[in-house]
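Give me the fold.
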Amino acid sequence: MAYKCISKNIYLLDPEPLGYKKQIALYLVKGSRYSALIDTGPKIVIDNVLETLSSILGKDVESLKYIMLTHIHIDHGGGAATLVKKLRDKYGIYARIMVHPRGAKHIIDPSKLWEASLKVLGKAAEIQGKPDSIDKEYVEALNDNSKIDLGDAKILAVYTPGHAPHHISYIVYPDNIAITGDAVAIHYDGRLHPVSPPPFKLDEALQSIERLKSFKPKRIAVTHYDVVESDGIEVLEHASMKIKQWYEIIKGFVDKGVRDPREILEYILEVDYETKYIVEVRENNPIFKGSALQSVRGILQYILSKS
């Protein structure tokens, strides 16, 4: 498992699910007093994650106090309970899982989450692994605008619904880097497209991007994948533009009576070089195969629900 230093306080961890690199980015924020891991990845990568945390933190591994989830989808938080148990059993660390109030009960008892994941993802869910349950004493609901003080680094929680109603982004200070999970976009090599599977809420997603802009982040760090090198505001504007662009394309097909997301995606791949590139580099991993199609389906269903 690879990792790299983003700044004095932030590390990017690549847990390499199924051996595929640059698919999932986790972010460790290391403060002078405490440390926090933002997202854990799915259950299948947790041994890799634990080993890498130990390599980075060394004897300071006991500083890892917080496991902060952007949201509970299993590629982001499916391994949270497993990681907390392993930290407890191996190091005697009692880390807390911080999550949106609407997601807390699904971390404690993930049975409904797992059922929904199997329904939507099928075999891709089985590959990632069924999330463990955990006692409620390890889970804490995180309010909007909550601040976590790690010492010389601080994390601000910002509710950013749209991709999911329980989504949280995090602004890390003093770097002023926004760690945005799936609230902004799928990103690879300077290219991006919406991450908008059902039940995507387009209006909320655009409002969340506008809210993130109000913090004037210097850089944007996404889960899929990496810290974007462009200016943070430019990335957010690009993402907003791309959502609106997809909306107009899909709305045009709906107006012509087309309801097949495959037909719509085929057209998008012809006219949108960014999406074509991302599909080619990302969807060879069976965990994420068909994710662009799901993103088209989310915006399509949003349009149909409004009409």
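The chain has one domain: 2-242.
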